[in-house]
Amino acid sequence: MSIAAQLSPQLLAQLTEIVGESRVKTDASSLENWGKDYTKHFEPNPSVIVFPSSTEQVQQIVQFANANQIAITPSGGRTGLSAGAVASNGEIVVSLDKMSQILDFFPADRMVRIQAGVVTEQLQEYAESKDMYYPVDFASAGSSQMGGNIATNAGGIKVIKYGMTRNWVLGLTVVTGKGDVLRLNKGMIKNATGYALQHLFIGSEGTLGIVTEAEIKLERKPHDLQVMVLGVPDFDAVMPILHAFQSKIDLTAFEFFGEVAMQKVLDHGHVQRPFDTECPYYVLLEFEAPYEPIMDAAMEIFEHCMEEGWVLDGVLSQSLDQVESLWRLREDISESIAPFTPYKNDISVLITHVPAFIKEIEEIVEQNYPDFEICWFGHIGDGNLHLNILKPENLDKDDFFAKCKVVNEHVFNTVQKYDGSISAEHGVGMTKKPYLAMTRSAEEIEYMKVLKKVFDPNSIMNPGKLFD
């Protein structure tokens, strides 16, 4: 299929008829802004940006794209880290920015129906206004959109307790690549009537169609959240700490980061070091403590970890302000390292394999990047690590990425050895596409391609992402 690099005036007029004159943009600034995500590996080159306001308009755009054999790239908050929302080949970018309404609330079902352009934080605040809670949370919650979260099955900082986005989706309205509108599962918890097609669209990265609405499950609000930040001497201490706490307390988060990450956040000047001792690594754990016995148990476990030498120093939050301040040590990492053009790896293995896996990855990193600054952090409580290699100031971006890609093979071979994933939560997009076979078998990939053909027979939906 040949993709038009520039749409003719006649085709632009047809798009304008669908969404209105103010909802079509072709100026260079708009093409640059809406044609990319957070990745810096690929240059955006869309032909036009359109802003539908309803499922019906999205359907008409998809039908138009099929009729004219023009590719579509769906666009949400553009916070992705795998180039899944980068339009680099003249695609029509379908932005969900104008589809940001919360449509209905079902208190008895603990469920809300939303449009796909609703921002994560907007949903969290709405849930709070109803004395409820939406637990999927991450650093980009203030700008990421729910449609994009669904398309990538976003995870974040509370997965150890609440799971991924998939766990909170009760139904979807989608426009398939064929141009059909499907209402999938309609919000039901129990529905034993064949294939659960909504789950195919969760994590599909816009390759099967466009999510336009969703029924999202909510939860009761957590009470009396407490946060501990613990300094640890080495990787080997991290998992014993996790096991010690999990054996007696239900954790809502268990995060990990290194001293390099800590220093980058401190350099921003917004937060202070939590305690005087400088440690190679840190864990942040969170738990509900509405009853005194839980706090007593937490302190006993902390003292046990100190006695075992797993913890060098630590702090327990004493107020809501301190809870927020301690969380910033972890949540501000991505923003703090962004100026260093980090090369990101988002990898995962079974929690059982984490200690051995980390040792091997660290050896690979030390052998191949002796002069590069390495920033470790991640959701280690669910087996997910973020390995960030920071670009030296005097090294060209392309040369830097080329050096990093050489070592990708070693890192991903180790992931494959432990039956892990090359992308735990960021998706595949274009950045991980060459390595998909290291996580998925050839047979699985073939089944995926067949499924794509069913929903998107003309291959107009986000081509070049996930697989070719």
UniProtKB/TrEMBL annotation:
| Annotated keywords | FAD, Flavoprotein, Metal-binding, Oxidoreductase, Zinc
What domain of life is recorded for the organism? Bacteria
Catalytic activity line of the entry: (R)-2-hydroxyglutarate + A = 2-oxoglutarate + AH2
Kindly list the cofactors needed. FAD
Taking every annotated instance into account, which residue ranges of this chain make up the domain FAD-binding PCMH-type? 42-221
Q: Which GO molecular function annotation, any one, does this entry have?
A: (R)-2-hydroxyglutarate dehydrogenase activity
Q: What InterPro entries has UniProt attached to this entry?
A: FAD-bd_oxidored_4_C, FAD-bd_PCMH, FAD-bd_PCMH-like_sf, FAD-bd_PCMH_sub1, FAD-bd_PCMH_sub2, FAD-linked_Oxase-like_C, FAD-oxidored/transferase_4, Oxid_FAD_bind_N
Enzyme kind, highest EC tier: oxidoreductase
Single GO biological process annotation from the record? respiratory electron transport chain
In the Enzyme Commission scheme, what number(s) does this protein have? 1.1.99.39
- Outline the subunit composition: Homodimer.
Q: Which family does it belong to?
A: Belongs to the FAD-binding oxidoreductase/transferase type 4 family.
Identify this protein by name.
Answer: D-2-hydroxyglutarate dehydrogenase
Annotated source species: Acinetobacter nectaris CIP 110549
